[in-house]
């Protein structure tokens, strides 16, 4: 198979579809890998590293789309990229089609087979390709939240862990899945007062065993969440309901 890796062009996207290590694995199995020049520079992988791994460097994205059997990306293709797709191709990337009707229509028009990382499901019903990103989102949510609580960022001047004589901040995490669990890990590590809400009693029991007295767990009712949010310095939305749109204000998804 001929696999193409174009450079990501969405604003503030620095990742790349395949690392040189991944290219080496694919070429070792007999596949040909085409990488757009400069595709890995956002994460410090040079064209020379890709060539050493067995890739062929191509000068532009349209040539990648024209020659490849499979396109491997990170973010959803922009509309002009969708127009380059052909019926005999496979696209493998994050798509998030529920929030992007124009993209969904453009992909349907292309006739290509489009596989979204976030919908690939294992035998246990889990989302193995979404999990790493959910782990990152959960951990980053606390880091970013702590930053914006700083006074110079327009926050209230709250330190999550407090100091001797000053109480720690209250962190409320709504959703105890992958993102919520990882958010709790960082918040606990920063000595915040952490409460996790979920609608699954079995999951709350698991979290209670994992964290012990480091956190509080609570069943997610509207009234309980409303009361907790009123007393919180930082609220993390970490709920994934398959199908519906997620609120754009949520910093993380489970």
Structure commentary:
The chain has helices spanning 20-28, 47-52, 61-67, 79-82, 101-110, 131-148, 178-189, 201-211, 222-230; strands spanning 2-5, 32-36, 56-58, 70-72, 90-93, 113-116, 170-174, 193-198, 215-219, 234-237. Helix 6 packs across helix 7. It is elongated, with a radius of gyration of 22 Å. It is built from nine helices and ten strands. Helix 8 (201-211) links the parallel strand 8 (193-198) and strand 9. It starts with a strand and ends in a 17-residue tail after the last strand. It folds into two domains: 2-119, Rossmann fold (3-Layer(aba) Sandwich), CATH 3.40.50.720; 131-237, Rossmann fold. The model is unreliable at 247-254 (pLDDT under 50). It has a six-stranded parallel β-sheet, sandwiched between helices. A four-stranded parallel β-sheet has the order 9-8-7-10, sandwiched between helices. It has 254 residues and is of the alpha/beta class.
